[in-house]
Amino acid sequence: MKSNIKEMFPVWVNDNKYYDLILSNDLDSFFSCQLLEMIKGWKVNFFNSDFKALGITENASNESDVIGVDLSLCSGKTFDNHVVMMNQDDDYNYNSANFNIIDRISRENYFSKYCGSTLLTIWSLYNIPLPKSEEAKMILLCIDSTFKGFYSPYPMPKEANKKYLVDYMDFPELYECLQRHKQYEFLNLISKYNLAGKIKPKQGYLHTDINLKALREVFDLPFLLPKNRFYKKEEYETYVNRLPRNDYRLVKDDISECMYSIALTNRDFISYSERIE
């Protein structure tokens, strides 16, 4: 990552102290957790089950000071890639490591957003060397559909794709990889490894249909789900609201003052969750 961009991230990303991680239900979060365990020694002891419930293992060290991974939390430390601001004056989580917060992306400039993975944010933030194989590079671009902006018929997503890959993350190799391939080749890889599969709890233990065995052969990482049992710690209610088109005056507090998580899933749609007390 370019040094001037790295300086804009929250200071905690450089901490050497131990943190437990909150895993969410997809490969972007899981692969990111694998990296963080490798380079920082941080381990998964919490699991956010699709913003319906939070599970915790018996090994959790500190329930109040944890790091979310690919989670759009409204407070607390988290790595994230979602658009979370309703307009340029909206408040945001100052402890969120998120390109879209750094660039103040909101409904007003939504199509200039970072439309890439949390994984690549972490990969570049900690200056991890990219894999050498072409297929491995393509898999990285598949996760959370980072590749799609390059093939967009609209100029703003195409420009944003290059800006973040090259100018921010300093990954010209990945942009060149996109230039060498057609969109269908990335779609085929998503199918081959079932990269869009989900992680789900069954009686407290995590399972997935993502082809982790095949991914182990491509990347030098274990790709092993946590074996510990997760016990329900808290539950959430999730809401999806349609926002007034071309009216950007609303801020998050106009909708709810007790949001746990927030993401703009489209310029005119907001998804958020609240803790069930």
What does this structure look like?
The structure is a single chain. The chain has 277 residues and is α/β, with parallel strands linked by helices. The chain has a domain at 3-128 and 197-218. 30% of the residues lie in helices and 21% in strands. The chain contains ten helices and eleven strands. The protein has helices at residues 3-6, 27-40, 99-102, 118-125, 134-142, 155-168, 172-180, 183-193, 212-218, 252-255; strands at 20-23, 43-49, 53-56, 66-69, 77-79, 96-97, 199-202, 205-208, 231-242, 261-266, 269-275. The strands form two sheets. The protein has a nine-stranded mixed beta sheet. A hairpin with a 2-residue loop joins strand 7 (199-202) and strand 8 (205-208). Helix 6 (155-168) packs across helix 7 (172-180). The longest helix is centred in the first third of the chain and has 14 residues, at 27-40. The relative contact order is 0.16.
Q: How many helical stretches?
A: 10
Helix content: 25-40%
Which percent range describes the beta-strand content?
Answer: 15-25%
Determine the mean pLDDT.
Answer: 97
